[in-house]
């Protein structure tokens, strides 16, 4: 017996806005929301091959500023929302996941428990570099000019111009110190 699947609802016309000067690789994937989440990509920003932006896990918007680079294999889930400032570079494999599955009940599979309350989404200031395979989780707030080392896992606030790395991420330096 074959089942016919129902057609997925169409996203609203304003679910995705892309500035005319932004560039999106034909091999990138954007999955706009059918529930009202908005995705906006600013002027001059680039979304490279195999990057994924998916409206899932909450009702937060994904707002990418101007002149940002979202490199290959980055994954951004909308969850509780993502705000990316201007001139931000996400190296290959960065994952931004501003949502957490509920898991406390033993009588119900985790996949059916929904999500924990929001910790405020993920906010990234202007002029930030996030290294390869770093993970930014719900509540992460990256200050202007900060650097996140490759493979770091960030859950809290990173002050401006600091360099953070490790799991969990902690301060390992200050941007510009070596030039003094």
Question: How would you sum up this structure, described in words?
Answer:
The chain is an all-beta fold. The chain has a single domain, classed as UDP N-Acetylglucosamine Acyltransferase, domain 1 (3 Solenoid), CATH 2.160.10. The chain is 0% helix and 32% strand. The chain has no helices and 21 strands. The strands form 3 sheets. Strands 2-5-8-11-14-17-20-21 form an 8-stranded mixed sheet, with no helix packed on it. A 7-stranded parallel sheet has the order 1-4-7-10-13-16-19, with no helix packed on it. A 6-stranded parallel sheet has the order 3-6-9-12-15-18, with no helix packed on it. A hairpin with a 4-residue loop joins β20 and β21 (170-174). The termini are far apart. The mean pLDDT is 92.
Mean of residue pLDDT?
A: 92
> What are the secondary-structure elements, in order, as H or E?
EEEEEEEEEEEEEEEEEEEEE
In what order do the strands lie side by side in the largest sheet?
A: 2-5-8-11-14-17-20-21
Number of strands: 21
Helical residue percent band = under 10%
CATH topology: UDP N-Acetylglucosamine Acyltransferase, domain 1
Largest sheet: 8 strands, mixed
What value does the Rg take, in angstroms? Answer: 17 Å
Q: How many individual domains?
A: 1
Strand content: 25-35%
Low-confidence stretches are none
Query: Tell me, what's the shape?
Result: globular
CATH architecture: 3 Solenoid
What is the number of helices? 0
> How far apart are the first and last residues' alpha carbons, in Å?
72 Å
* Structural class designation: mainly beta
Please, what is the CATH homologous superfamily? Hexapeptide repeat proteins
Class in CATH? Mainly Beta
């Amino acid at each position: 017996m074959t089942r016919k699947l129902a057609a997925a609802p169409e996203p609203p016309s304003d679910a995705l806005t892309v500035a005319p000067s932004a560039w999106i690789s034909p091999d990138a994937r954007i999955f706009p929301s059918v529930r009202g989440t908005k995705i906006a990509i600013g002027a001059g920003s680039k979304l490279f091959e195999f990057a994924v932006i998916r409206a899932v896990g909450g009702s937060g918007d994904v707002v990418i500023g101007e002149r940002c680079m979202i490199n290959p294999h980055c994954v951004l889930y909308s969850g509780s929302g993502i705000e990316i400032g201007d001139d931000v570079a996400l190296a290959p494999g960065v994952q931004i996941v501003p949502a957490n599955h509920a898991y406390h009940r033993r009588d119900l599979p985790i996949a059916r428990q929904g999500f924990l309350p929001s910790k405020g989404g993920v906010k990234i200031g202007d002029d930030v570099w996030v290294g390869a395979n770093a993970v930014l989780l719900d509540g992460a707030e990256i200050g202007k000019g900060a650097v996140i080392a490759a493979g770091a896992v960030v859950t809290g606030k990173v002050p401006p111009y600091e360099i953070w790395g490790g799991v969990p991420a902690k301060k390992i330096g200050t941007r510009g110190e070596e030039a003094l």
